[in-house]
Design goal:
The chain is α/β, with parallel strands linked by helices. The protein is built from twelve helices and eleven strands.
């Protein structure tokens, strides 16, 4: 009975959010931004049963007070829910994708090479920090061959996310849940033909992947991307979110170096942790694949967290 109630609530929330994104898209980027921020704020307050432990986790991981952790979490809800609404709005015919893409700035694009002569394939490392889809769309509009790896979320109608990606100018690459090997071969082909693959890596897998200590919690992180990079002999290039307002700002970072897929996974995790500790208010701390785990009993903020604290 409880499962049916949860399913019903999710269906109502899905229809409400999709309908709201359609209404917001008819008002342009400004209305989408305001509506997304409002939804994020509501989400934060309605999630109060879960937020107490999250605030405690954030305070310990980032070495700040509970009050500052609360501010960080509230901003995380607001900015990342806004990003979700922007992505949903892209699927509506009334939305002007270029108007949304105009609100993205990316520094360090020279690392990717010239748009008409990019380096031979690359994996662009993204995270649940701001609107990475619009960032990828901006690169695609600038002439880079961007392919976005995604899975159809169970909370959205099938195909909606793919339509958003196509309208944004990206090439969607849907992962095959039933046949991961097929997806691996497809990605390998894209990379060997000079394509750039944008992926999100900051979430644990359910019972799969390698155990990693990530922000004080032991998670299983996906190993397919490091193996893919080594197999295709292409670099993994992190793209870090820097700001959410007045525009989304991102920075392309130098490629990660590693001798094999195991050390590359370590480098990827360290890069993501560094970015989160540098801009904690931009990361989706409320993402279920992190919040459902508990901090290690003996966890203490590492030197990186202390350094970030001293710079604030």
């Amino acid at each position: 009975m409880a499962a049916r109630i949860r399913k019903f609530r999710r269906r109502i929330a899905q229809r409400f959010t999709i309908g709201l994104s359609g209404w917001a898209s008819r008002g342009g980027p400004a209305r989408i931004r305001r509506t997304g921020n409002f939804l994020g704020t509501l989400h934060y307050f309605f999630s109060w049963p879960f937020n107490r432990r999250l605030r405690g986790d954030i305070a310990r991981v980032t070495a700040v007070s509970n009050r500052k952790a609360s501010t960080t979490l509230r901003h995380a809800y607001r900015d990342n829910d806004r990003a979700v609404l922007e992505i949903l709005s892209l699927a509506h015919p009334a939305c002007d994708p270029d108007a949304l893409i105009d609100g993205v700035e990316i520094g360090g694009q020279e690392i990717l090479g010239a748009p008409d002569r990019p380096q031979r394939g690359a994996i662009l490392l993204g995270m649940h920090m701001g609107n990475g889809i619009l960032m990828a769309a901006r690169l695609a509009r600038d002439g880079f061959p961007i392919h976005v790896v995604y899975r159809d979320p169970r909370r959205l109608p099938p195909g909606l996310l793919g339509r958003s990606l196509e309208r944004a100018g990206c090439i969607p690459l849907a992962l095959d849940r039933a046949n991961p090997t097929r997806s691996f071969r497809q990605l390998l082909k894209v990379l060997k033909h000079g394509g750039m693959v944008y992926v999100l890596m900051d979430q644990g897998n359910k019972g799969e992947g390698a155990r990693q200590r990530f922000l004080g919690k032991i998670l299983r992180m996906p190993t397919g991307i490091p193996k893919l990079a080594m197999r295709a002999n292409v670099p993994v290039i992190p793209i870090h979110a820097k700001a959410a307002a007045p525009t989304w700002r991102f920075q392309v970072r130098p490629p990660l170096s590693a001798r094999d897929d195991v050390s590359l996974l370590d480098a990827i995790c360290l890069s993501m942790q560094h970015q989160i500790l540098e801009r904690p208010a931009l990361w989706a701390w409320h993402h279920r694949r992190w919040k459902r785990y508990h901090l290690e009993p003996d966890f203490k903020p590492d030197a990186q967290a202390e350094n970030n604290l001293s710079c604030r």
